[in-house]
## 1
Amino acid sequence: MHIEIDDDLADKITVQNLFESLQVNRDMSQELMTKESLENYEAIDLADQLKIIKHLEAVLSHYLPANEYENLVGKKYPTR
């Protein structure tokens, strides 16, 4: 199946998917950070999630202007 979509719609879909992934990783990492102690595998998972969060935020900064980025991501727009 071949579906034609314009660039704006493709960008909106991409941003939505990136943001949903960001939220999932934030939620999972927050859950681990609330624990008093972590098993080794949990500490590894948390470190991985924090890296993924940084990468997702960086990618989102390429798709969004500063004000939209700050509103959606909840952080200051990164300087390049």
Note: The longest helix spans residues 7-33.
## 2
Amino acid sequence: MKYAVISVLMLSMSLIFVSCENESQLTQNSSDIETQILDKKPIRSDQITFTGDLVGDEEVFGCCPNAGPSPEYTMDVVSDKFPVEFQGEHTGNIFLNGFGRSLPWAYKVQFWWGGEEEYFIEIRGGTVHKDKRTKILTVTFTQEDTCWTWDPNGVERIIFIDFTLIRAPLRK
């Protein structure tokens, strides 16, 4: 009886060691794993709308965790406060994110386009309102907030604009 208990114990320990060793082995290629992860957690989409000196209204997928990605977005720069080369409709990339209380500004919006000759807009500031029930985020930017522009020649300008950003999660 004593030998049977010891045998069962030894067999159990052997199985545990073997399973632990195999668990750390990668048995699938990484693209299969990424596909499985994406299938389990669908990519979030948001309706991102700008009104005021910046205009846009588009569904965007996967925007915008802290390190990106920065999805494609079409924005119309309608204000004559911007340099002439910035005005008009542009398809580029967008990044937006809120920040904690330790910074002097609450929200950041970045938009850039142009490939080789890249144009870049960054706005920091805003007054944030988040409706907890609907999860709709509204950020109002006024001329008290700072907007920087950079053109392909490296010229940096500071301008003061007014616009509202509305970010609404879409349910699929």
Note: The longest helix spans residues 2-23.
## 3
Amino acid sequence: MKTTLKISLVLLLSTIYFSCNNNETVNEKNTTFKSDAYYKLDQEKWVQVGKVENNVPSIMVNKDKLINSLEANLLKYSQLYVGFTDVYIYENFDNYHLVFKGAKYTTSLYLEMSDTKVLYARGDTTCTTTECSQEPLGCVVKYDLSKPGAPGYCSPCDNGGKCTKTFSNKALIIVNDEDLIEY
């Protein structure tokens, strides 16, 4: 009986020790790259949009098709008519975002890079703003890595401006194989 109690106590203390020493933080960049097959398994959410060559990210999809598909879905799901004129990849310390820009609105999607340096958008969550569109890291999609599979959330605007999250069970941008641009 005492041996069982001692073993239980050791297991409990070990669990507490290792739980408290887990230094994972929210939205910490995952440094282990996943294979392209990982992203292709869940094509409902992950969409191939670009790649990184010589440390420079670039879009590999027809930009007009990206813009048109996101505009249609933001109107459908959030009643936002956004009028985007450009889309580009923003990099911040190995974190990538697909940013759609218009005269008034800015919308972002979270990107991950595979082991072959292909960029995939997690297309089921977007963050849209008019009030902090000039802030590069205000109102962008982030994920809590301690909760795998959980939907993304929008980072707050530094100026306190409003940020609209749009979430779907499928990607809000649509890319077909014929939309990919070969390099």
Note: The CA atoms of residues 3 and 74 lie 61 Å apart.
## 4
Amino acid sequence: MNAPVANLQPAAATRQAVQPMHVLIKGRVQTSRSHNGTRYTHILTPAEDAYSRPQLVEVRSKRQLGMKDEEVSVTAKLGGYARKPFISVDKETGERLSITPVDMTLDAVE
């Protein structure tokens, strides 16, 4: 028996509300620090289920996003940059691979 195919397209209102490269982060402020006029806030998000770990993200902003242990909801812009490449050797084949790590950044939309 064929099951109905779920509609994978978001509703029109949702499509308009979410901008490309923007994410909604909900969680509890774990720590916050300031350096050169930029505030770095660690937000601990809830675990997806009882058997997985909570995620920890760092959001950069110009202002304080919340006090320690406060529940917050923040829209942030996703960014990233490539770090210095390094050479890795595959243990099974001996092939030399150039690996370029990528770090992702989150900047609060203010």
Note: The longest helix spans residues 12-17.
